[in-house]
Amino acid sequence: MKKIEIKTAITVFDSLDELLKENKSLMNEAVKARQNAYAPYSKFSVGAALLLENGTVVIGNNQENAAYPSGMCAERVAIWNASSQYPNKKVIKLAISASSSSHIVKEPVAPCGACRQTLSEYEMKQKESIEVFFMGEEGKVIKTASVLDLLPIAFDKSFL
Ligand code: THU
Description:
Bound molecules: tetrahydrodeoxyuridine
């Protein structure tokens, strides 16, 4: 028997203003995308913006449904949008922003488990890390150097 410790690393920025210009503008795209979320049930709006290697920004936002499980998260809408429009273009970065109409979201909102799994598929496919930035509506921004930093011991095609 042996015990293995797995470490991960995050960078915490005090505010959006601490980000490099390119990252700040990607986050601003996520904020814009968030404003078009369709979230009448949870009132929780999420926007995601991906920067591709060709400089294109692809966005997504959460799309809810009266049959709740039929809705979809912003991150998966964005990555599937990117993969369907630009199947061979690498994704360099992802920015995520969330807000609620019932309270101010002050803490960074991390992608859910299903989105981490989905994003990891594309990160492994392209064999290059995707930087992930996430925040609420205001306040801190968290950055990870890759999706796998958010998903240690991931399931992947090697198990199939
Ligand atoms: N949501 C996202 O869009 N991304 C996440 O990573 C977590 C949750 C959405 C799904 C649902 O529309 C709302 O937030 C509340 O869960």
